[in-house]
Design brief:
Largest sheet: 6 strands, mixed
Strand order of the largest sheet: 1-5-4-3-2-6
Strand content: under 5%
Length: about 750
């Protein structure tokens, strides 16, 4: 969703407040650090630390005040110039404008840059999100930190300038700058987290990757709106109609007052905090004159517009709901009706909140009808949902404001599936038939219960899963391996735990324990029930790693090792382990066996066991033992990873590219949002040689534990574990085909139109 001046103003307010809090925490932490230095450092350093601590206690408040004033001025300048390049170009240089740079300026730049590097590393993730948000707000395809008014350079500069203005002693200034820099770096995370929350709580989120194509499209659309608004002759006729509709809405806002949420229009200038302004009919402050964009934005913001429960309005909504119910029933048997045509049938609706909702939802569906990402037939089926969706919005505005709610989810799911299948696919026709069926069911059943939308989405998901499995030979061939990997993963985790418990009670060297529980357990579990039975090698493996005192034992081991090595290598090959990894694992065992033969192992207090005794001990391990599942899915240690998928695809004889798991799989607050795209049938783009190639998510394993991607002309599918998928989407090497969900794209278009009308007013 596009941003508004008000959201940016709220972010600026939070930045200034947050910087004041950051300064207080910074000086408190620096005081503690200087106190520690005064106790533990060398005598000379102790004296300097004590002096700086005393200075900070006496002049800390003045330093903070200077820093806050400096930051406020720098922030105002940064907002004024963001995405407006005021730097002098080479063609503007003249001899009389050139000047020398003083040493002090160079020193300042070096010190500020040194702190800047530390601040960037302190919360690189949140800073990156803010950089991307600012770029996308301005429709810029290139993310540049210098355009972000909240960049850490301003804080580093404020600290440096504040110290230079107050501290005269150079040694004190240097120590204070170092200590305060360290303290600021530690405390910075909360500052950027709160800034992100300002944008994200109002629906403005950084997308996975700034796309020149999507941003260029938005810029073209903005120009089309502006041409139509300013009455230029070559403006598109459809855009003229949209402008006319929004223009009528703009006039209603100017002539009629509506129920606005607190904070949308703002209190009159000079009113004390908490005071209530004089209200006109409808509940709007008398002096408030919100722009069209502000009002439109409030309808689609979770903390925005809410209905008031006035009896007259309730009666009007009931009458309107009855008219829409009739239109809904007409759409069961008739063809799709254009959104603007439906609006014309409601032209007699009196001005008010309901009229705004009717117009806005109609404009949203008008955009859906013209969305170029979707095939024409799918757009028309989506427009059949206009009446029931409008009824739901009139009953509860949360339908417009909650992306997780059933009505919006159904629209977005149909849109994503249609874009992912594509207009040229033979699967489009059966998909369109199913969409027509579920839309008809919604038209027949919807009254007030949103579960009708949720059921329709669930049925569509099930249909797509079955359609792709039945009609795509690659998916049909791969599904047993994909599902088996998910089934095996919890068993593998349980078997590894059981083996570890048994091995800890016998005399076995640590290298062998790691090999058995981390590598050989996979061979045992994946190949269970197949021939040869690699689980039978376990007693010999353990015995080979035990201390050999008698010459006869060493001779027996030397006789055993060649055959044991061949079987180990064969077992690792069966589960598709890469040659380099298999060789590294076997090299560790060779090193271990050399230590055994040379009597180099440290003595063990545990008794040694014979091969027969070890067979009896390990024969009780159940390779089928299940692992408990959490209520919301698989345990983290029971999720399948790259090795499980590679093993099962190798055992099933399927050539597939299994993407590597991240080195460190960390959870993120954005994981749920990213996984919302992971539905069978959705389109994705994969980065390959600096270009993005289209793939389709063709199958999703149970509990979203694995993902199978196929592409036209590609015989080998791509397989991602959950951790690998999330890592790829975070870094942008894999991204959804749509730059935003269908409903959000419609809102962006509407906001662009409102912005253009406000600018022309």
């Amino acid at each position: 969703m596009q941003t508004l001046k008000r959201v940016l103003a709220l972010a600026l307010e939070e930045a200034q407040t947050g910087f004041g809090t950051l300064c207080r925490r910074m000086t408190d932490r620096a005081d503690a650090a200087l106190g520690e230095s005064a106790r533990t450092a060398s005598p000379a350093d102790q004296r300097m630390a004590s002096t700086c601590r005393l200075f900070l206690r006496e002049h800390g408040a003045a330093l903070r005040a200077r820093m806050e004033r400096a930051y406020s001025a720098l922030l105002a300048r940064a907002v004024q110039t963001m995405h407006t390049d005021l730097r002098t170009g080479l063609h503007d240089f003249r001899a009389d404008t050139l000047s020398l740079v003083e040493d002090e300026v160079v020193t300042r730049q070096i010190e500020v840059e040194r702190l800047l590097l530390r601040l960037r590393d302190a919360d690189e993730l949140s800073l990156g999100h803010l950089n991307l948000i600012i770029a996308q707000m301005h429709g810029d395809s290139e993310v540049r930190e210098r355009e972000n008014p909240f960049r850490p350079y301003l804080m580093a500069r404020a600290l440096y300038d504040g110290l230079q203005a107050i501290v005269t002693d150079e040694a004190q200034s240097k120590l204070l700058f170092d200590v305060l820099s360290e303290a600021m770096t530690v405390e910075l995370g909360d500052f950027y987290t709160r800034l992100r929350e300002v944008f994200e709580s109002r629906g403005i989120r950084s997308r996975l990757l700034a796309r020149p194509t999507a941003l260029n499209k938005r810029e073209k659309e903005r120009l089309a709106w502006q041409r139509a608004v300013t009455g230029q002759a070559d403006a598109d006729q459809a855009m003229r109609q949209r402008v006319e509709r929004l223009g009528v809405l703009q006039q209603q806002i100017q002539q009629q007052q509506f129920d606005l949420p607190q904070g949308v229009a703002g209190a009159p200038h000079g009113m004390p905090p908490g005071a209530q302004p004089a209200m006109q009919h409808g509940g709007m402050p008398m002096h408030a004159k919100p722009e069209l964009q502000e009002l439109v934005y409030s309808f689609f913001t979770p903390s925005g517009m809410k209905y008031s429960a006035q009896p007259a309005q309730s009666q009007l909504r009931q009458q309107l709901d009855g008219a829409l119910r009739q239109l809904q029933r007409e759409n069961i048997s008739s063809g799709p009706q254009a959104p603007l045509a439906l609006l014309d049938r409601l032209a007699n609706l009196p001005p008010g909140s309901e009229r705004i909702v009717v117009e806005l939802v109609g404009m949203l569906f008008e955009f859906i009808l013209n969305d170029e990402l979707l095939p024409k037939g799918m757009r028309e089926q989506l427009c059949r949902l206009h009446a029931p969706f409008l009824r739901a919005a009139l009953q509860d505005l949360d339908v417009l404001q909650g992306a997780h709610l059933p009505g919006r989810r159904l629209l977005d799911r149909i849109g994503s599936a249609a874009a992912g299948i594509g207009a040229d696919s033979p699967l489009l026709q059966p998909l369109q038939g199913e969409v027509e069926r579920v839309v008809t069911v919604v038209l027949e059943q919807y009254e007030r219960d949103p579960v009708v939308f949720a059921n329709a989405e669930e049925e569509l998901d099930g249909f797509l899963t079955s359609l792709l499995r039945e009609c795509d030979p690659v998916v049909r061939r791969c599904m047993p391996a994909l599902e088996r990997a998910v089934e095996v993963a919890p068993q593998l985790a349980a078997v590894a735990d059981a083996l570890r418990g048994q091995l800890e009670s016998v005399n076995v060297e640590r290298r062998m324990m790691d090999f058995i529980t981390g590598t050989w357990a996979q061979v045992m579990v994946h190949t269970k029930g197949r021939q040869p039975d690699y689980g039978k090698l376990l007693p010999e493996l353990v015995w080979s790693a035990q201390e050999k005192i008698a010459p006869e034992e060493r001779a027996a081991l030397m006789k055993m090792l060649p055959a044991l090595g061949r079987e180990l290598r064969a077992g690792l090959a069966v589960i598709g382990m890469q040659e380099a990894a298999a060789q590294a694992a076997l090299d560790q065992l060779v090193s271990l066996h050399m230590d055994v033969l040379s009597n180099s192992l440290p003595p063990s207090v545990l008794p040694r066991m014979s091969v027969a005794g070890l067979r009896a001990r390990f024969g009780a391990i159940d390779l089928d033992q299940p692992i408990a599942l959490a209520a919301d899915g698989l345990r983290a240690d029971a999720l399948p990873g790259q090795s499980q998928f590679r093993a099962e695809f190798a055992l099933h004889g399927i050539l597939a590219t299994v993407q590597p798991d991240p080195v460190l799989a960390t959870a993120s607050s954005s994981d749920d949002e990213l996984l919302q795209w992971a539905h069978a049938g959705n389109g994705f783009e994969l980065l390959s040689d600096d270009n993005y190639v289209q793939w389709r998510l063709s199958a999703v394993a149970p509990r979203k534990a694995g993902f199978l991607f196929t592409a036209q002309g590609q015989s080998a599918p791509l397989v991602y574990s959950r951790a690998a998928l999330l890592a790829a989407m975070r870094e942008g090497s894999l991204r959804p085909l749509e730059y935003a969900p269908l409903f959000e794209r419609a809102v962006e278009s509407l906001m662009t139109g409102a912005e253009s009308l406000d600018a022309a007013a």
